[in-house]
């Protein structure tokens, strides 16, 4: 019948929140129908009771009218007219009483019986199926929770087999119960129409037969109208209901045959259903870990689905889903959990949101990781999203395919050498065209041969014996990254620039030259190829703090500085030309033997790698200008000190001149009365003793003046 909504029996196995929401609508409709039918049943029962009461009252009236002659009224006399009139009324009312009795019987059969059957049989059957379905759903949730809490140990195969069998049985029971429950709810959409129309039809037909003595034209009109409705009810509603019930029963049989292998939580034959890595949309039930305390957490089963670039979740009974996190430029990877299997972790682009989820099987876990990874690259915005995802995944596999020269250095399984021509030809696998510098320099001029690659962050130690001896003598460990032990504890709190980025360490290796523009690209290719060869997928996540003094790698949980790179030792920094999330920098440091060594560090960031490189460049510029300003200030201070010293020398010289002038004046004043000229124009000559006394007096005066 057009316009009637149906519950999709084909989606009962998936049991999605959308299906549960639609089921909730049908259950609300069933509750409304039950409430309405109860009220209608009460009203019709009142009509039936009233009709029975009317029939009994009419019969009692007729009997009382017949017994009028037997009554003895104190003031009444024999009134034959009245008696005969009442007898006629009694006869007519007795006939009406018979008609009312027939009407009561017709109302019981045609009006009360259909609505009673619908109320007591159909509605109660749906309520019973609802209770059975709820019990089966709870049993399935209990079984799937028990299965999800299985340990990863292999010594409990019996418990694991019992859990799998329990999941199979409960899921099959829930599926079959849900299909029959949906069939009953769909059938109710037809039964409610017949259950409402048939009582009314019986009521009107009974009334028409009761008023058969009335107007023939009116009776004929009602009979034609009700006959048409009766034909519609019998021929249309019932026929469509039988056809729909037949189709639903056939669908149930087909679903039971085809979905038997889907009841198990894990596929027994992985080759039968390979992992699809080209998905850009996915939905299904997952467990999400929620923190309940500082060290405790709980797992909750919810329905997750992707909508555009967002990860959404929806609980049972909810009409719409809620946002979990934005998947654009996010990172996702498989993680190991102490108490759960098939877990993976998604981190937002800014690192503020981290979600740990658990899938039912390894295949489901890998498909979720591939889907989120494809969405993070914004492949879903293209027209042919799956085709583009397939090409991107194939390009990623080719991008990490190692060159023959790299495998020659790191794997003994391929001892054949292809020469420098093969090594030079593998440069194009990085994702960019070779530069003119690489056409002149070979790969040996960029990356030192037989250089080990470090895939994890280890605290730096000195590798030279001389450095170790110096460390033992001084009581302080030397640092190959150029930082001394006395300033490692100093934090650049007064730095102008403070920028924090979330990065993941991919690897580092020593390079021959630090000035070449392509050394970082070649190191990226070497490290990515080595990770692909050795199946290394785990990465250490850290916080990269960029200041005007240094670069720091900080542990996000303990806030402990893992590594510290002096900014003056960073020679260059650049990002990948195609994958902007990859970046690296070259560190030039002095070794214990007096020569310098260059190490290239490669990272992956949640943000654009060019922003981090620009931040490092800005820090170097600020440090350069700060150093220039510091030198200028020191030069001005030295000039001011020289001026002050010159002023002091001038003041001392002036004081000495003043002292000399004062002494000469005093000497001249003391010598004038002691040596008057002779009358004959000759000077008096003092004796030696007098001259010595005068000299001694002069020296005493000078000493006293100097002391004063």
UniProtKB/TrEMBL annotation:
Gene Ontology terms: biological process: cellular response to growth factor stimulus; positive regulation of biosynthetic process; positive regulation of transport; signaling
Where would I find the PH domain in this sequence? 279-377
Keywords from UniProt, A to Z, are: Cell cycle, Cell projection, Coiled coil, Cytoplasm, Cytoplasmic vesicle, Endosome, Membrane, Nucleus, Phosphoprotein
What GO terms fall under cellular component here?
A: early endosome membrane; nucleus; phagocytic vesicle; ruffle
Q: Which InterPro entries does the record associate with it?
A: AH/BAR_dom_sf (IPR027267), BAR_dom (IPR004148), DP13A/B (IPR047181), PH-like_dom_sf (IPR011993), PH_domain (IPR001849), PH_DP13A/B (IPR047236), PTB/PI_dom (IPR006020), PTB_APPL (IPR047237)
Checking SUPFAM superfamilies in the record gives:
BAR/IMD domain-like, PH domain-like
Q: Which Pfam families match?
A: BAR_3, PH, PID
Task: Report membrane topology.
Answer: Peripheral membrane protein
Q: For bias kind Polar residues, which ranges apply?
A: 462-477
Q: Does the keyword Mitochondrion apply?
A: no
Query: What are the Low complexity biased-composition ranges?
Result: 414-436
Question: What does the UniProt entry say about where the protein is found?
Answer: Cell projection, Ruffle; Cytoplasmic vesicle, Phagosome; Early endosome membrane; Nucleus
Matching entries from PROSITE patterns are given as:
PH_DOMAIN, PID
Q: Where is the composition biased (Basic and acidic residues)?
A: 630-664, 698-708
Q: Where is this region: Disordered?
A: 399-436, 458-493, 630-708
**PID domain mapped to chain residues:** 501-650
Q: State what protein this is by name.
A: DCC-interacting protein 13-alpha
Q: Which organism is it from?
A: Lates calcarifer
| Gene assigned in the entry | appl1
